[in-house]
Design a protein that fits this description.
With 214 residues, this protein is of the alpha+beta class. It contains 8 helices and 8 strands. The chain has an 8-stranded antiparallel barrel with strand order 1-2-3-4-5-6-7-8.
């Protein structure tokens, strides 16, 4: 599907202008008890519902630069204090691998995703490919929502999966994303690298605060 770049850029600019409203909308609705339990990996498979790509609409920033700069150190120190299975240095290495991504920004609107690596961008219209429920070695569960690029000539990832600790329609507050060109099945086996994105409009300090307190 052809997408006019200038139109897409204009609509994304409008999203940026209304950035604070967008950020507050994502964080304004508290999780219900069932949603909180699902976020912790405990839910009945029957509770899982289809979701549209619009649940992730907006402009998003990678948290990997914050880890690399040391700005996430307070978050990782708190993690190490709570979970002694790893030292602070080991947790940092774990998240360095998990958050690693060369995609600085992801913009999503009208089922189109745009990926930015510095000044280079790629985009594609994505179709819904359903979801998969995963059971991890810990016994906890998670859901990945699958989407596929419609345009074979696009340089955007062919296959995309979202995981945001939510199992039914709800605007995402942050997400982990899995991207590749091999197959959805190949991505489903990826457990070590889960690039993570927060709203573009949030400052670095706000992202750190969000991670510390939520």
């Amino acid at each position: 599907m052809a997408v006019k770049r200038h139109t897409f850029a204009l609509t994304l600019a409008a999203l940026l202008i209304s950035g604070q409203a967008f950020a507050h909308a994502h964080h304004g609705k508290p999780l219900s008890a069932a949603e909180q339990q699902a976020a912790e990996g405990v839910f009945d498979d029957k509770a899982v519902k289809e979701r549209d790509l619009s649940d992730w609409d907006g402009i998003w920033q990678s948290v990997y630069p914050l880890l690399s700069s040391g700005e996430l150190d307070p978050v990782l120190r708190k993690k190490a204090e709570k979970d002694h299975s790893k030292s602070f240095a080991q947790w940092k290495a774990y998240y360095r691998q998990g958050y690693a991504s060369d995609i600085d920004k992801i913009a999503i609107e009208n089922n189109v995703m745009e990926f930015s690596r510095g000044e280079q961008t790629s985009r594609c219209h994505y179709r819904n490919a359903g979801y998969r429920i995963l059971t991890y070695t810990s016994g906890k569960k998670g859901v990945r929502y699958l989407f596929e690029c419609d345009d074979a000539s696009s340089k955007a990832p062919k296959y995309v999966q979202f995981s945001d600790h939510t199992i039914a329609p709800r605007k995402s507050a942050h997400f982990h994303i899995f991207m590749g060109n091999t197959s959805q099945e190949a991505l489903l086996s990826e457990m070590d690298n889960w690039p993570t994105y927060y709203p573009w409009q949030m400052s670095n300090a706000q992202v750190v605060d969000e991670m510390l307190h939520h």
